[in-house]
Amino acid sequence: MKTFLLISLGLLMVMSTYSLYGCKQTSGEPNLVRVSYHSDATGEDREYFVYLPAGYDDNNQTDWPVLLFLHGNGERGDAKEELDFVMVHGPLYEAWAQKRDLPFIIVAPQLPMYHMGEMDYIANRSFSDIPVRLEEGVPPRPEVVAPAVPVDGISYPGEMPLPVEGPLNGWYRLEKDIEIILDQVKDRFRTDQSRVYVTGISYGGFGTWYIASQMPERFAAIVPVVGFAHPDLVDPIATYRIPVWCFSAGRDLVVRPEYFYPAINRLEELGHKNVILTNHETEGHDAWVRIYAGEDIYNWLLKHKKPNRL
After folding, report:
1. How many angstroms separate the CA atoms of 221 and 56, rounded?
2. How many domains does the chain have?
3. Helix, strand, coil share (%) of the chain residues, nearest 5
4. pLDDT tens across 34-73, in order?
5. β 191-201/244-249 pair status
6. What's the pLDDT score for residue 60?
């Protein structure tokens, strides 16, 4: 059963339809909007979320920073009935379910299934897993328990375990879709194009590196979370000097922290100094819960603006 009431706004816009989630349309309150687009990757009409922060409707002269969020493997779907799964984790969860005043337009597309729906954590998921925006208060945050394994020391791998583009059927397959989506958001919402950021978790962490490397002129800063980059991927990020804050986790049994070092070393070899790698030593793969629940990454992103490149 759907957890939010979908209310049609009936906005007449070329190649795009808008809908509003929520029970109220009160001046100053945030809105959650569905935008439809034609997918280059699937050849179908799909949708993505756009979160409009509190105050967006109050001042038509204000341009807002944009935060593109790329979800993990477990939140794939048809970008229609299953789009709500992209709200389970990350900044959209923080802003919408936890009602945090995050001053970004948050853009959240969805990866297609690509025959990956047989994986247990996808096959066994339920619409009841989707967080609800409550009329009063906020839902309890999920309890996170790190795996009971020792924290490993640093070891450098002999070779990378994944190809340059990242894991199978990842965000590289939606590269052209991301371009379409970012162009739509630019055209239809009041955005500050000098402050466009991208972040993502796990599959979306890999995707953050990949998308930034393929369209480096678009982004002012990136935050990949528990997803590393192949060192052969990152040259454009160094060329454009895109600030990077990357997160790994010491008890991550899915994406091992030692694989983060080659790309970080490569960036530094290329003279890129604005690179941070933070390893949450005591956390497991879902370290993103702690990371997005804090203030640090949002404040750090807002410090960065894309320089004029004439």
Report:
1. 22
2. 1
3. 30, 20, 50
4. 999 999 999 999 999 999 999 998 878 899 999 999 999 9
5. unpaired
6. 83
Q: How many CB atoms lie within 10 A of CB 27?
A: 8
- Asked whether residue 100 is assigned to any structural domain, the reply reads yes
**Helix or strand or coil: residue 178?**
helix
Residue 298 within a domain: yes
Largest CA distance in the chain: 57
Between CA 82 and CA 108 the distance in angstroms is 13
CA distances from 153 to 24, 250, 256 (A): 51, 9, 11
What is the token pair recorded at 285? 């793969």
278 within a domain of the structure (yes/no): yes
Q: Give pLDDT, residue 152.
A: 59
In the chain, which residues have pLDDT < 50? 1-26, 310
Contacting residues for 224 by C-beta, under 8 A, at least 6 apart? 199, 200, 205, 206, 208, 209, 244, 246, 247
Which among 225, 236, 189, 230 is positioned nearest to 62, based on CA atoms? 189
pTM (two decimals): 0.83
DSSP string over 246-267: EEEETT-SSS-GGGGHHHHHHH
CA-derived radius of gyration, the chain: 19
User: The domain containing residue 287 runs over which residues?
Assistant: 6-302
Q: Going by DSSP bridges, is the β-strand pair 244-249/221-225 parallel, antiparallel, or unpaired?
A: parallel
